[in-house]
Amino acid sequence: MLEWQNVSALTTSNDDHNLTYMDSHHAMELAHRPVKIVIIIVLGVMITLGNIAVISVISSSVAGWSRNSRYFLLSLTGADSAFGLIVMPLNLCVSLVKNSSMEPDPFCHIVAFFNSTVYSTCMYTLATISFERYIAVFYPLRYRSLMTRRRALLLIAFAWLFPPVLLLPISLPEGIIEVHFSTASLVCNPSYSSNVAYSFTLTGLIFFPCSIVMTYCNLRLWFAAKRQQKRLRKSYLNGRSRPNVASRVLVPVMAAYYACWTPCMAIMIYNAISGNGVSEWMEFVAVWLPTSNGFLNCIFYFWINQSFRRKFYTIVGRLFWGLCPELCKAMGCIPVTGFHEDHRVWNNNNAFQERSSSVSSTCTLLTLASNTYV
């Protein structure tokens, strides 16, 4: 009897210790919540403003960018904008009224569904862009027959419509996937440990296929650009060194993709297998890191492109001159001209755009370096 009382007392003591630890841990997460909210808001503003600037440019004609390229890049911009316009506001709203001790509700399931859908759409869109660039560079003469307008739109439709179908079980409150709000990441997280097979199905149909397509296509482009660089150096530059355009474009794109998405996928698989969580800030960083890819895409896919920057400066200059002509005159600004001429030239030359799509957007790999010396 005495031994049983000692065991019972020890068990009660351990339970009290665990409850005390959980309460202190939860209190710490709540104390860090304002800092996390500020980080999320700043990141959301950066993503939104960056993608608004991109949409304002690529919604019109850009020299050297084909029609299909603009479709794919608009799709990417839309997916990235969804981070700042949908994912972040929804999760911030939930974080203001919920904590991890509250039971999941249908609204949290809907938020988790939108989170997963936007994340997956962004990955599929990045994969389709890599595939389009691969076709444009390696099959430039057959580009118009291989990548027709209809096929390009079908690829974009697949990137946007397949993820909601695949992730539909997350939106069902009584479905196979449980959803709980995490005070560590301020996100409605699906509990993949409740259905390990489904979590591996998601990674097997989303992250790994997209990563394989992106890695293969971009590695092929990188090796092609390196070979072209060597040939140009021997033929035209007499052995002079030239900017490593392939490393300047493709390496940052792939490095940013894996740096942003791998931690999130790794933690999801770890939680599904072990059933245990990770530390507070590790979870927060891993969950929100993919959204930063929405801002980095603006830099790697657009701002390093000279045609994009030139068109952006033209639009901003015309807008500034139209809104504040007196201030422009006082500052000695010169009215921006040539916009309509450039717009007309490229709109009336769609056939040339489609065949030369290999130099569109970040696909200027094989010609950008030579343009540097013009």
UniProtKB/TrEMBL annotation:
<feature type="transmembrane region" description="Helical">
    <location>
        <begin position="285"/>
        <end position="304"/>
    </location>
</feature>
<dbReference type="InterPro" id="IPR017452">
    <property type="entry name" value="GPCR_Rhodpsn_7TM"/>
</dbReference>
<keyword id="KW-0297">G-protein coupled receptor</keyword>
<dbReference type="GO" id="GO:0004930">
    <property type="term" value="F:G protein-coupled receptor activity"/>
</dbReference>
<keyword id="KW-0675">Receptor</keyword>
<keyword id="KW-1133">Transmembrane helix</keyword>
<dbReference type="GO" id="GO:0005886">
    <property type="term" value="C:plasma membrane"/>
</dbReference>
<feature type="transmembrane region" description="Helical">
    <location>
        <begin position="71"/>
        <end position="90"/>
    </location>
</feature>
<dbReference type="InterPro" id="IPR050569">
    <property type="entry name" value="TAAR"/>
</dbReference>
<comment type="similarity">
    <text>Belongs to the G-protein coupled receptor 1 family.</text>
</comment>
<protein>
    <submittedName>
        <fullName>Probable G-protein coupled receptor 21</fullName>
    </submittedName>
</protein>
<keyword id="KW-0472">Membrane</keyword>
<keyword id="KW-1003">Cell membrane</keyword>
<dbReference type="InterPro" id="IPR000276">
    <property type="entry name" value="GPCR_Rhodpsn"/>
</dbReference>
<keyword id="KW-0807">Transducer</keyword>
<feature type="transmembrane region" description="Helical">
    <location>
        <begin position="110"/>
        <end position="131"/>
    </location>
</feature>
<feature type="transmembrane region" description="Helical">
    <location>
        <begin position="200"/>
        <end position="224"/>
    </location>
</feature>
<keyword id="KW-0812">Transmembrane</keyword>
<dbReference type="Pfam" id="PF00001">
    <property type="entry name" value="7tm_1"/>
</dbReference>
<feature type="domain" description="G-protein coupled receptors family 1 profile">
    <location>
        <begin position="50"/>
        <end position="301"/>
    </location>
</feature>
<feature type="transmembrane region" description="Helical">
    <location>
        <begin position="37"/>
        <end position="59"/>
    </location>
</feature>
<feature type="transmembrane region" description="Helical">
    <location>
        <begin position="152"/>
        <end position="172"/>
    </location>
</feature>
<feature type="transmembrane region" description="Helical">
    <location>
        <begin position="245"/>
        <end position="273"/>
    </location>
</feature>
